[in-house]
UniProtKB/TrEMBL annotation:
Protein name as it appears in the record: Sugar ABC transporter permease
Taxon lineage: Bacteria, Bacillati, Actinomycetota, Actinomycetes, Micromonosporales
Major localization class: membrane
Domain ABC transmembrane type-1: from-to ranges: 79-269
Family that this chain belongs to: Belongs to the binding-protein-dependent transport system permease family.
PANTHER family: ABC TRANSPORTER PERMEASE PROTEIN MG189-RELATED, ABC TRANSPORTER PERMEASE PROTEIN MG189-RELATED-RELATED
Annotated signal sequence range: none
Topology term for the membrane: Multi-pass membrane protein
Transmembrane segments: 20-40, 73-102, 114-137, 143-163, 190-215, 247-268
Entry keyword Metal-binding: no
Subcellular location: Cell membrane
Gene Ontology BP terms: transmembrane transport
Organism, as annotated: Paractinoplanes ferrugineus
InterPro entries: MetI-like, MetI-like_sf
Gene Ontology terms: cellular component: plasma membrane
Length: 284
């Protein structure tokens, strides 16, 4: 009898050129954020200084005080609004997109492929084409000028449905779903007990992408919240940059504050993705 011995895959390490390239890419990618921090901590003279200043100053607290005490902008309220909008949109997208992805991947119903084709087709339509119709619809509902008008269009996304459908189709075996049905589990029980634990990595990725996109959204909040006292953070930043004379240290100080939550989220999210992969792995 022949015995086959399988060896565990050995860890491969890149050469010094690979690490040097990664370091250069990291430096070039992070420099704009660093320079934003430098200007946010400096005076007005540092903006026009040649060569540009690369050493942080000591005016960060003064610049932040100006940003948060401007009565025309209400920056604190805008950050709270952005957090509310982004959190609600992210949670709703994770729930509805994973539920729809499960239906398209594992359930059999009439016109399933045709409906999935329509969902994919909506990805080719630019969002700008629907702004007028969306504004009219929100006006008829009486939501223009409120956070409901910002939240409602983002409760579910076509990309999220497609992404979850593709992930569930490969991550959840059909035999596992059939075994759960034989044991008497209903559809929602299969979704909650079988599908969700297996798609944690995809939920983490989709949640990060959705939160970042909702936080950075500018066009639609600017349109529907135009003239309101408490906009989102991106609209508040545009208000800081408006006027005949722009104080860039103030604008970049506000941009730095609005960027910090995203940086923290991405740093924490990377660990969550790895943890979700380990917990959601299928062991044989």
């Amino acid at each position: 009898m022949t015995t086959f011995v399988t060896r565990a895959p050995q860890e491969t390490r890149g050469s010094w050129k690979t690490y040097l390239g990664l370091v250069l890419v990291l430096v070039f990618s992070a420099f704009p954020v660093y320079w934003m921090f430098v200007i946010a901590t400096s005076t007005d003279a540092a903006v026009s200084q040649i060569p540009p200043s690369v050493i942080p100053g000591g005016e960060l607290m003064n610049n932040l005080r100006e940003v948060f005490t401007m009565n025309e902008v209400y920056f604190t309220a805008s950050l709270i609004n952005s957090f509310i909008v982004s959190s609600v949109i992210t949670l709703s997208t994770l729930f509805f997109c994973s539920l729809a992805g499960f239906a398209f991947a594992k359930l059999h119903f009439p016109a399933r492929n045709a409906l999935m084709f329509v969902v994919i087709l909506t990805l080719t339509v630019p969002n700008q084409l629907g702004v007028v119709a969306l504004y009219i619809l929100m006006g008829k509902l009486g939501w223009n000028g409120t956070l409901l008008a910002v939240i409602a269009p983002g409760l579910v996304s076509a990309f999220g449905v497609f992404y979850m459908r593709q992930f569930i189709a490969h991550a959840v075996p059909d035999e596992l779903v059939e075994a759960a049905r034989i044991d008497g589990a209903m559809t929602l029980r299969v979704y909650w007990s079988i599908v969700l634990p297996a798609i944690r990595p995809a939920l983490a990725v989709l949640g990060l992408l959705t939160f970042v996109m909702a936080w950075n959204d500018f066009q639609w909040p600017l349109i529907t919240l135009n003239g309101t006292e408490f906009p989102t953070s991106m609209v508040a930043l545009s208000d800081l940059a408006s006027g005949n004379y722009v104080i860039y240290r103030r604008v970049l100080a506000g941009a730095f504050v609005a960027t910090v939550p995203l940086i923290v989220l991405l740093l924490l999210g990377g660990r969550q993705i790895v943890r979700g992969i380990m917990e959601g792995a299928v062991k044989s």
